[in-house]
Amino acid sequence: SEKFKGVIVAMNSCYDAEGRVSPAAVKKLTRFLIDKGVNGLYVGGSTGEGLLQSVEERKLVLEAAIEASAGEVPIIAHVGALSTQDGIELAVHAEKAGAAALSAVAPFYYGYSEEAVGRHWSAIADSADLPFIIYHIPATTGFSLTKGLLKQLLANPKFIGIKTTTASTYELQQFKAMGGESFLMFNGPDEQYLAGRIMGADAGIGGTYGAMPELFVQLEKQYSAGRIEAARQVQFRINDIITDMLAVPIYAALKELVRRRGVDCGDVRAPLPKLSAAHAEQIDALHAKIELA
Ligand code: SI3
């Protein structure tokens, strides 16, 4: 589908000073990102802290983002949850709220068989009339999507693509080959946006895009115009920034950088690590790099 292309920001969730979901701040962040020219938003994923929120809070965040987006870009709702029941409730809600697609990580904690994960994803996908994007992120869930499971899932047309967050663009290319040209690949690691696009990703979904949307929009523009050397130079600048982000608590840093750009999304939710005074210099340096870019 032509709908899901280019730069899709895995956006932060926003809280007020008491740590409650702030729909007003979510709306402000949504506008900030869309006005920078991004192609879509991914709500409630890893960067979005969806798994640290109650089902009700997740609904609030999604509704605020969809409302503020005013139909200008597609909104993908991450509805992955520990229980299939919560995933279904969120999927049904996402459809009503106007999301363009669903996505979910594999269930985790107990350690599930491929069969169990397949059942979980299928039950969520079948609960709503929306396309479904598998969120393949073995480093955090401990579950790795195999070609065997993918083959089974492909029998269901609801499964339209995979967000692949692994270091392997070979794997991304292999999944794409299995699904065919119309099966969508979403690049996960922001450090590999260009590599992922070259190997067959139709789009990227990433958290660091939120702090520097201009750079990713520029990268996508250069790549789609066939200017590979210029695209490489933008990716290198991005990677220099990401390397510094990975040296501090990254989700907290993203929120602080976004705050300095005018949108206060509050702190990350515990147990995610917060920034401390010891990080001040690194954050100042990051902010300066982003401003200069
Ligand atoms: O749902 C999401 O927040 C994502 O899209 C995740 C995304 O792939 C990020 N990965 C994780 C584990 O958060 C990347 O954006 C990642 O933060 C970045 O590549 C830096 O390593």
What does this structure look like?
Helix 3 links the parallel strand 3 (75-78) and strand 4 (101-105). The radius of gyration is 18 Å and the shape is globular. It has 12 helices and 8 strands. The longest helix has 18 residues, at 228-245. With 293 residues, the protein is of the alpha/beta class. The chain has a single domain (6-214), classed as TIM Barrel, CATH 3.20.20. An 8-stranded parallel β-barrel has the order 1-2-3-4-5-6-7-8, surrounded by 5 helices. Ligand SI3 binds at residues 10, 42, 45-47, 140, 165, 188-191, 205-208, 242, 246, 250.
Summarize the structure.
By secondary structure, the protein is of the alpha/beta class.
CA-based shape: globular
Q: Describe the sheet with the most strands.
A: 8 strands, parallel, barrel
Per CATH, which architecture?
Answer: Alpha-Beta Barrel
In CATH, the homologous superfamily goes by the name Aldolase class I
- Say what the CATH topology is: TIM Barrel
Which ligands occur here?
ligand SI3
Helix residue percentage = 40-55%
Return residue spans where pLDDT drops below 50 for at least 5 consecutive residues. Answer: none
Number of helices: 12
Lateral strand order in the biggest sheet: 1-2-3-4-5-6-7-8
Q: Rounded to an integer, what's the Rg over CA atoms?
A: 18 Å
> Could you report the average pLDDT, rounded to the nearest whole number?
97
What is the SS-derived class? Answer: alpha/beta
Determine the strand fraction and express it as a percent band: 5-15%
> What is the level 1 CATH name?
Alpha Beta
Record field, number of beta strands: 8
* Count of discrete structural domains: 1
